Protein backbone atom coordinates (compact mmCIF):
# COMPACT_ATOMS: atom_id res chain seq x y z
CA UNK A 1 0.00 0.00 0.00
CA UNK A 2 2.85 2.37 0.83
CA UNK A 3 4.34 1.75 -2.62
CA UNK A 4 1.10 2.93 -4.27
CA UNK A 5 1.08 6.08 -2.14
CA UNK A 6 4.68 6.90 -2.99
CA UNK A 7 4.01 6.27 -6.69
CA UNK A 8 0.90 8.46 -6.63
CA UNK A 9 2.75 11.28 -4.89
CA UNK A 10 5.65 11.05 -7.33
CA UNK A 11 3.27 11.07 -10.29
CA UNK A 12 1.40 14.08 -8.91
CA UNK A 13 4.61 16.07 -8.43
CA UNK A 14 5.80 15.13 -11.92
CA UNK A 15 2.53 16.21 -13.48
CA UNK A 16 2.52 19.51 -11.60
CA UNK A 17 6.06 20.36 -12.66
CA UNK A 18 5.39 19.40 -16.30
CA UNK A 19 1.98 21.09 -16.44
CA UNK A 20 2.93 24.50 -17.88
CA UNK A 21 5.32 22.93 -20.39
CA UNK A 22 2.67 20.52 -21.64
CA UNK A 23 0.13 23.33 -21.74
CA UNK A 24 2.45 25.66 -23.70
CA UNK A 25 3.16 22.94 -26.24
CA UNK A 26 -0.57 22.26 -26.62
CA UNK A 27 -1.47 25.89 -27.35
CA UNK A 28 -2.11 26.72 -30.99
CA UNK A 29 -0.22 29.90 -31.81
CA UNK A 30 -2.00 30.32 -35.14
CA UNK A 31 -5.41 30.14 -33.51
CA UNK A 32 -4.37 32.54 -30.76
CA UNK A 33 -2.95 34.99 -33.32
CA UNK A 34 -6.26 35.02 -35.21
CA UNK A 35 -8.56 34.97 -32.15
CA UNK A 36 -10.26 38.34 -31.54
CA UNK A 37 -10.91 37.29 -27.95
CA UNK A 38 -7.16 37.06 -27.40
CA UNK A 39 -6.32 40.40 -28.94
CA UNK A 40 -7.04 39.87 -32.61
CA UNK A 41 -3.50 40.33 -33.90
CA UNK A 42 -4.69 39.97 -37.49
CA UNK A 43 -6.64 43.24 -37.33
CA UNK A 44 -3.41 45.29 -37.30
CA UNK A 45 -0.68 42.89 -38.43
CA UNK A 46 -2.62 41.07 -41.18
CA UNK A 47 -3.85 37.50 -41.46
CA UNK A 48 -0.49 36.46 -42.90
CA UNK A 49 1.50 38.57 -40.38
CA UNK A 50 3.12 40.24 -43.41
CA UNK A 51 0.43 42.77 -44.36
CA UNK A 52 0.04 45.27 -41.52
CA UNK A 53 -2.87 47.70 -41.52
CA UNK A 54 -0.45 50.65 -41.51
CA UNK A 55 3.09 50.90 -42.87
CA UNK A 56 4.32 51.86 -39.41
CA UNK A 57 3.12 48.57 -37.88
CA UNK A 58 5.72 45.77 -37.98
CA UNK A 59 5.58 42.71 -40.18
CA UNK A 60 5.76 39.85 -37.71
CA UNK A 61 6.22 36.80 -39.94
CA UNK A 62 9.65 35.26 -39.54
CA UNK A 63 10.79 37.51 -36.69
CA UNK A 64 12.98 36.01 -33.98
CA UNK A 65 10.87 34.10 -31.45
CA UNK A 66 12.66 35.51 -28.40
CA UNK A 67 12.41 39.05 -29.73
CA UNK A 68 8.67 38.72 -30.38
CA UNK A 69 8.03 37.29 -26.94
CA UNK A 70 10.06 39.99 -25.21
CA UNK A 71 8.27 42.76 -27.11
CA UNK A 72 4.87 41.39 -26.10
CA UNK A 73 5.95 41.09 -22.47
CA UNK A 74 7.45 44.58 -22.47
CA UNK A 75 4.30 46.09 -23.95
CA UNK A 76 2.13 44.21 -21.47
CA UNK A 77 4.20 45.35 -18.48
CA UNK A 78 4.63 48.91 -19.72
CA UNK A 79 8.42 48.58 -20.05
CA UNK A 80 7.95 49.42 -23.73
CA UNK A 81 5.70 52.44 -23.90
CA UNK A 82 5.67 54.75 -26.87
CA UNK A 83 3.13 55.96 -29.41
CA UNK A 84 3.33 52.72 -31.36
CA UNK A 85 2.43 50.56 -28.37
CA UNK A 86 -0.82 52.26 -27.38
CA UNK A 87 -3.07 49.96 -29.41
CA UNK A 88 -1.27 46.81 -28.28
CA UNK A 89 -1.29 47.87 -24.64
CA UNK A 90 -5.08 47.72 -24.80
CA UNK A 91 -5.12 44.06 -25.84
CA UNK A 92 -2.04 42.56 -24.18
CA UNK A 93 -3.92 42.05 -20.92
CA UNK A 94 -5.98 39.42 -22.78
CA UNK A 95 -3.06 37.00 -23.18
CA UNK A 96 -0.96 35.20 -20.61
CA UNK A 97 2.72 34.24 -20.79
CA UNK A 98 2.07 30.78 -22.25
CA UNK A 99 -0.18 32.22 -24.94
CA UNK A 100 2.41 34.87 -25.83
CA UNK A 101 5.04 32.15 -26.13
CA UNK A 102 2.79 30.13 -28.47
CA UNK A 103 2.10 33.18 -30.63
CA UNK A 104 5.81 34.05 -30.81
CA UNK A 105 6.67 30.48 -31.77
CA UNK A 106 4.01 30.47 -34.50
CA UNK A 107 5.08 33.83 -35.96
CA UNK A 108 8.77 32.96 -35.96
CA UNK A 109 8.02 29.86 -38.03
CA UNK A 110 6.29 31.82 -40.79
CA UNK A 111 8.09 32.73 -43.99
CA UNK A 112 8.77 36.49 -44.05
Describe this structure in words.
The protein has 112 residues and is mainly alpha-helical. It has one domain: Cytochrome Bc1 Complex, Chain D, domain 2 (Orthogonal Bundle), CATH 1.10.760.10. The chain is built from six helices and no strands. Helix 1 packs across helix 6 and helix 4 packs antiparallel against helix 6. It is globular and about 30 Å long. The chain starts with a helix and ends with a helix. The N terminus is likely disordered.
Which keywords apply here?
mainly alpha; 112 residues; single chain; 6 helices; Cytochrome Bc1 Complex, Chain D, domain 2
Give a quick precis of the structure:
The protein is mainly alpha-helical and 112 residues long. The protein has helices spanning 2-26, 29-34, 42-45, 65-77, 86-92, 97-108. It is built from 6 helices and no strands.
Amino acid sequence: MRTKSVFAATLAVSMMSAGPVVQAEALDGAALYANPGKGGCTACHGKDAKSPLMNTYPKLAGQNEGYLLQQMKDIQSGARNNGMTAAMKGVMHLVNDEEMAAIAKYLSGLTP
